[in-house]
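--- STAGE predict ---
source: upstream dedup step, 1 unique chain passed
mode: sequence only
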Amino acid sequence: MDAHLDDEQIDRSAGLPESAKSAIRLENQIAGQYWGGVEWRIVATFVVTLALWIAVIVAAHRGSIPLWLGFVLNTALATTFYMPMHESVHGNISGKVTSMRWLNELVGKLSQVPLLMAHSAHRTSHMKHHAFTNEPGRDPDHFTHGTLSQIPKKWFAVAMVNTFLPLLALIPALRRLLPKGMAESASSDPGAQRSMFRMWLLSTIALVVCAVLGVGVEALVLWYVPARLTMFWLMVVFAWYPHHPADTPGRYLDTRVAVFPGSGLLIRGHDHHALHHLYPRVAHYRLRGLWQEMSADLVAKGVRAEGRATNATRPVVWS
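--- STAGE serialize ---
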């Protein structure tokens, strides 16, 4: 199934008895207080991060800072672009303000440049992840299922796909080299495939042009490699960590709230990821406040609360 999905089309209460659906309606009334307007904080974060990212490139090119420092700074900054893209995918930047939908799309599409991640393809993949969380062969993120030590190998496979995308498209036999579950969950949606190919083509042309102009090394060190390393970080903190051990589907069971010191900053609020799957229209920095209000009820319904989370029932599970 690769038809376009959005949050309104993903009914995570399907098959539940009427009493459970009534309880969900009450939940939604509470969550509804946490979203609706334009999320200017996300826009401001994006603008500031973009300005810093460009400033680092300019400073490194002029020799004001060493190239290695520019690499470190832009790798850190690149990780920050994912939240604006992610919130754009869910329509959270514009909220219910339809006249600002253009801003939602603009921020999302601009974020794809530092990330080298196609916005529309990610939207298709991410909505499938929400619809089929933890279902092997249907959840695009489920290939990260396993131990943390396996992530580097899986990240390398993703990096190779992004680098040699046309070869994998033209020679299906090469897909057997991909980690188990990755090929099966790959999108077959033509629009998503075109989006990914455009990203590959434009980024490759950009690198060639930079090489011809004599700044190829700078382009690799300040843009291309940081973007690829960012994918490793995203696989850990947004795919693996929030769902681990990723072996149980279900409205209250497929994700968790797992808080450790500094997790709010490192994971941009998605240490409360279970709430994001329950109420995806709530911006990431509002999830903690929503959890404070709803934690007792949700833990009683089966949501895993770990570590320092309010009403946690056990330590953070890493193994």
